[in-house]
Amino acid sequence: MATVSGDQAKHVALGLDRAQLLAMYEKLLVARFLDERMWVLNRQGRVAFVISCQGQEACQVGSAFALDPDTDFVLPYYRDVGVVLVWGQTPLDLLLALFARAGDPSSAGRQMPSHFSSRKLRILSPSSVVGTQIPHCAGVGLSIKLQRQRGVAITYFGDGTTSQGDFHEGLNFAAVHKLPCIFVCENNQYAISEPQERQMAVRDVAVRAVAYGMPGVIVDGNDVLEVYSATREAADRARRGEGPTLIEAKTYRLVPHSSDDNDRRYRTSAEVEEWRTRDPIDRFKAYLLGNGLLDEHEDAALRASVRGAIQDAADAAERAPSPTAADLYAHVYATPSGR
Amino acid sequence: MPTKTVIEAIREGLAEEMRRDDRVIVLGEDVGTAGGVFGATVGLQTEFGVERVIDAPLAESCIVGVAIGAAFNNVRPVAEIQFMDFIHPAMNQIMNEAARIRYRSAGDFCCPIVVRVPFGGGVHGGLYHSQSIEALFCHIPGLKCVAPSSPYDAKGLLKAAIRDDDPVIFCEHKRTYRLIKGEVPDGDYAVPIGKAIVRRAGTRITVLTYGLMVHYALEAAESAAAKDIDVEVVDLRTLRPLDTELILESVRKTGKVLIVHEANKTGGIGGEIAALISEEAFDALDGPVTRLCAPDVPAMGYAPVFEQAFLPNASRIEAALTTLAEY
Questions:
Q1: What's residue A1's pLDDT?
Q2: Which CATH number fits the domain that encloses residue A79?
Q3: In whole angstroms, what is the distance from residue B293 CA to residue A149 CA?
Q4: Which of A174, A220, A333, B10 could be bridged to A179 by S-S, CB 3.0 to 4.6 A?
């Protein structure tokens, strides 16, 4: 467990009260336990595929809490369970997608799991091709500026995505037009099997921001309050009309890339175990305990309640109806014929 | 009724839609200060400002990607890609993103963007300023693809495309921009997407074509008429969704079909139309469904002899009509 020395005033300086901190903590737990349940369902043969957020929850929950889901748009990537939970999706929503049920609000059973989408919640539909959402984020920023809206657009991606042309093109456009955008790189140090040194010759993704003329900020992605702080500052800049920010949250993926991956082919269990000692949820729990904001009894009760709710949601999702084959033909165009 | 060129009609259509709906914006390379490399957007930035007529960085994927993003939030972007030859870097954004956003969100989102793109040869454009790759877009469900041949249709289809809630690839034959003049009414009108039109009624052979080739086909039809071959010329106008009713109606009348396009033959829209006719109107056929297309070489070369050898023209169309008439 991390010590709390030096951390004492962090949330006070950020102006966060106990209720807000506990809300963050609960989202971290929901993201983790939901992800763990998804793996169990996969290993039991009940669902075909899982892609994971484990280890990266602080990047997701910390940044999302710094924004306003009522005015801001989010363009998540496939690991962002923690982000979309803060934005208003529920464990049931995600589990309906996991089981490819008709009631899956993201895509009604069309997309693979974790392709989060909801017009009502301002979560913008992603594909599986990495990086395409980055120019989209710039476009949303452009639309916000054009329509004099208050919102900002935040998008997320991994370190691997920063090799894509769309990363460069999107950041460049957003900077040229001083758009209210935040680009969050959850640098988990691997693009599936390829470690960072196979992907880029720089140590920090954030230095690339210099090339676009925007701030590049490095944060400890396993410290939820640090991520919160950096994102809030970026959001304030964006709302002041000062343009976009690139945030690099250094983190680690604690499980394989997906349910079809075996990470022992490219990294050691010792390395993974070392990162488990820096688990963002354990660290935040220690912070809360150390500051007298939570006790072990409350923690145990919260964990039991979160696990119970997720189990109930999983049962409900499994029982929910599948789409019908006829649904395959719907929503190609606004009208059935396209005319 | 005033007479205008295709490029003037497009400019007028853009301006009218921008006046009608302040959600409409234009973005692309050189579209602002310069008014576009072909002049389609001349004057728009002066009238509508830099926020609505945006000089974008030279990055096609970004231009389309930004358009998609803006469309997520109630904007109706018209993106210009300078040449169809340059659209390839944006293919992922067009095919994987724009085309599938409605479908992948089960109708929750839509993607109302227009991508205007000059295509076609005959302007000394060589390999990379002459391509006709419209069939690639027609292969993708979720996209619409139009290719007007006249000033009237260019303006009317552009208005329909901007008002459409689905992504539309708007193919403008660059040789027609200043070559083709026609009457364009001043008032508001739209030409519906998905509707072909009979440009010349005839009884013996149907020519199905679009873009510049419509004009060559009409020329060839007049020459053929002198040989008592009465040709019907159908301007497809929309390549996806095809106007199957009008195509089949014309085929059932004439029994013979010549499909003309300057895109490469293999995998072109002509093959799709031929299959459609074979499946739906086999019993009406009185000869082989014939294609007159560009040869299967990567592009027309820059040398004039290459360009002439590559492109179908009126005399080749007339020769194909004569052969077909003999069946």
A1: 41
A2: 3.40.50.970
A3: 50
A4: A174
Looking at the structure, tell me whether residues B203 and B284 fall in a common domain.
Answer: yes
Distance from CA of A122 to the nearest CA of B (A): 9
pLDDT along chain B (327 residues), means of 10: 96 98 98 97 98 98 98 98 98 98 98 98 95 98 98 98 98 98 95 98 98 98 98 98 98 98 97 98 97 96 96 98 96
Residues spanned by the domain of B70: 3-183
Mark whether B26 and B138 lie in a shared domain.
Answer: yes
Interface of A with B in 287-326 (CB under 8 A): none
**Nearest CA to CA, how far is A335 from chain B (Å)?**
10
Among B199, B226, B181, residue whose Cα is nearest residue B321: B226
Put simply, the answer to whether B69 touches A138 (Cβ < 8 Å) is: yes
Residue A327 in any domain: the answer is: no
Domain count, chain A: 1
Structural domains of chain B, count: 2
Sequential DSSP letters for B251-296: HHHHS-EEEEEEEESTTSHHHHHHHHHHHHHGGG-SS--EEEEE-S
- Residue A274, classed as helix, strand or coil, is helix
ipTM rounded to 2 decimals:
0.97
- Chain A residues 58-77 with a CB less than 8 Å from chain B: 73, 75
State if pTM tops 0.95.
yes
Is A132 within 8 Å of chain B by CB?
Answer: yes
Inter-chain contact B65–A144, Cβ cutoff 8 Å?
A: no
Active site residues of B: 129
CATH code at position B112: 3.40.50.970
pLDDT of residue A6: 53
- The neighbour count for residue B86, using CB atoms within 10 Å, is 18
**Residue pairs between chains A and B whose CB atoms are closer than 8 Å:** 157
The answer to whether residue A236 is domain-embedded is yes
Asked whether residue A7 carries a pLDDT value surpassing 70, the answer given is: no
Residue A2 above 50 pLDDT? no
What is the Cα–Cα distance from A214 to A226, expressed in whole angstroms?
20
Whether residues A132 and B166 touch (CB distance < 8 A) is answered with: no
Residue A126: closest CA among A158, A92, A163? A158
Q: Which one of B61, B76, B238 makes the best mutation probe of the A interface by having the most chain A beta carbons within 10 Å?
A: B61
Do B132 and B58 fall into the same domain?
Answer: yes
The residue segments making up the domain with residue A77 are 10-318
Record: contact B104-A110, CB cut-off 8 A:
yes
